[in-house]
Amino acid sequence: MSTLAFLPLDLQHPHLVIVDGSKLVRRVLTGMLAKTLPNAVITECESAEQVKSLLLTQPVHLLITSLVLPDMDGSDLAAFAREKSTQSYFPIIVVSAEVQERLAQRTISPHVTDYFDKTWGMEALASFIKGYIAPEEEVGGQVLYVEDSRVVAAATIRMMKKHGLGVQHAVSVEDALVMLDQPNETPPDIILSDVYLKGELTGMDLLKILRQDREVSKKQLPIVVMTGDSDPRNQKQLIQLGANDLVQKPIEERLLITKLLFQLRMARKGQMPAA
Predict the structure, then answer these.
(1) How far lies 106's CA from each of 69, 100, 235, 237, in Å?
(2) What is residue 146's three-state secondary structure?
(3) pLDDT in tens, 3-27
(4) Using only C-alpha atoms, what is the Rg of the chain?
(5) pTM to 2 decimal places
(6) Which residues pair with 44 in a beta bridge?
(7) Which domains can be identified in the chain, with CATH numbers?
(8) Is 41 in a helix, a strand, or coil?
(9) Which of 142, 179, 195, 205 sits CB 3.0–4.6 Å from 201 for a disulfide?
(10) Sign of CA dihedral 262, 263, 267, 268
(11) Cβ contacts of residue 141 below 8 Å, gap of 6+?
């Protein structure tokens, strides 16, 4: 697990930085966030150069940047923030209409905490950002969690239950499929699965069975896959097989919970891509 710690949040006045070359985009997102997080301090920047100066002089709790900036790529800005900022680790979210393509190609910078597809809209983005600053515990939901390590499972289950999520635990894909087929079981709202598991079937097989054989869409049942595999080809394959999102192992609690709650919210609002 990473030893980096998030900057302790000033829950009364968290500092959010929005970086986008479009004044209109900045204004719209600021307006949305002002409604969603009324106590937040929001700084707008139109260029990476402005952010560089700010990072060296002020604490930042979350940075939201467009992938394409007038003077620098958003991924390069994230790298600068990680290397030059003297403060503790803070989330960096990249916003772009190219996210799905980059996600499939796994070309998002390792310095980026998370990414957001701009085509989902500003309201969804504001909700996504709120997940990092003030997670909505009441979102709730039932998670089918597939993990063969009981030590890892125990720690991750505690994380999820702490945030109001119900958990059904399966140690293999075979067991998970049996649970899904039980008519008296509460159906899961989302699946969280490791890739490499005990038994003959893997997390990739689970994706194939649900997305291809059973034709269960991303909107019907979101699937978040945990992987310690850094090979871009294998990560790309998981996305192509129908994973809604990936979580890199070792698991960081805030990132995992934010991703799960966001997928649950989007599925319930009908805003998840159906493919």
Answers:
(1) 20, 9, 7, 10
(2) strand
(3) 333 344 455 788 999 999 999 999 9
(4) 19
(5) 0.65
(6) 18
(7) 15-133 (3.40.50.2300), 137-269 (3.40.50.2300)
(8) strand
(9) 205
(10) negative
(11) 165, 166, 189, 190, 260, 261, 264
